[in-house]
């Protein structure tokens, strides 16, 4: 009876191929989940961009969106958008720049971030318009005021500790007890009586 080698090969290779296929699927699934977590972190914190989760998510893009073989163009679009945003971040205005210059820079950051989120949405399978990415943010006024207050306090402490701003101090009154005040007044009267009122000479009393 002739040996059907293809049957033998299929019998031996089948379990191996099944295991490798399962590993490939799990690896691809993990990669997709990590990308989604990065995208979600950016979306959730895009109104508070100094948040640690927002910054951490940006710094993971180069690793997690490294271009793959199957979707290389899509992944490269994400990487390129991130590098464009990073370039704007790295050329920010100085603290003493005019308001118009700061506003223009903030607008460039906004545009580049929306572009990055749009490219990432396509890469992870979300259908979102640029208008949703730009306007679909809820950030209550109370949260804005709290963040500004914290930044103001931190800036004040920094200036104080670095010697740029002195600590304002004003003394309104000294805490003095009535008994102590009376004793000081009595001492002053006795000291004054020791001098002659007209000549101002010190009175000396001889004691036998």
Note the total helix count: 8
The number of E-state strands comes to 0
Largest sheet: none
- Shape category: rod-shaped
Share of helix, binned: 55-70%
Kindly report the average pLDDT value. 80
What is the rounded Rg? Answer: 38 Å
- By oligomeric state, this entry counts as single chain
Structural class: mainly alpha
What is the end-to-end distance?
Answer: 151 Å
Key phrases:
208 residues, 0% strand, 8 helices, mainly alpha
Give a quick precis of the structure.
With 208 residues, the chain is mainly α. The protein has eight helices and no strands.
Describe the protein.
Helix content is 67%, strand content 0%. The chain has helices at residues 5-44, 52-59, 61-64, 72-89, 99-124, 130-135, 141-161, 178-193. It is rod-shaped, with a radius of gyration of 38 Å. The model has no long low-confidence stretch (mean pLDDT 80).
Summarize the topology.
Layout: H1 5-44, H2 52-59, H3 61-64, H4 72-89, H5 99-124, H6 130-135, H7 141-161, H8 178-193
């Amino acid at each position: 009876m002739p040996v059907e080698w293809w049957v033998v090969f299929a019998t031996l290779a089948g379990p191996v191929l099944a295991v490798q296929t399962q590993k490939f699927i799990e690896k691809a699934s993990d990669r997709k989940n990590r990308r989604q977590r990065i995208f979600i972190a950016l979306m959730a914190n895009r109104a508070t961009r100094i948040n640690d989760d927002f910054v951490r998510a940006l710094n993971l893009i180069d690793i997690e969106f490294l271009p793959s073989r199957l979707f290389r163009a899509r992944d490269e679009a994400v990487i390129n958008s991130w590098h464009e945003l990073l370039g704007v971040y790295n050329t920010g205005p100085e603290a003493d720049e005019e308001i118009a210059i700061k506003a223009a820079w903030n607008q460039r950051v906004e545009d580049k971030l929306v572009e990055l989120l749009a490219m990432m949405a396509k890469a992870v399978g979300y259908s979102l318009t640029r208008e949703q990415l730009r306007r679909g943010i809820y950030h209550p006024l109370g949260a804005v005021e709290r963040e500004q207050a914290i930044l103001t306090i931190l800036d004040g402490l920094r200036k104080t500790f670095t010697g740029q701003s002195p600590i304002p101090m004003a003394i309104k009154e000294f805490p003095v007890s009535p008994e102590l005040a009376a004793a000081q007044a009595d001492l002053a009267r006795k000291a004054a009586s020791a001098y002659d009122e007209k000549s101002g000479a010190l009175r000396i009393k001889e004691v036998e």
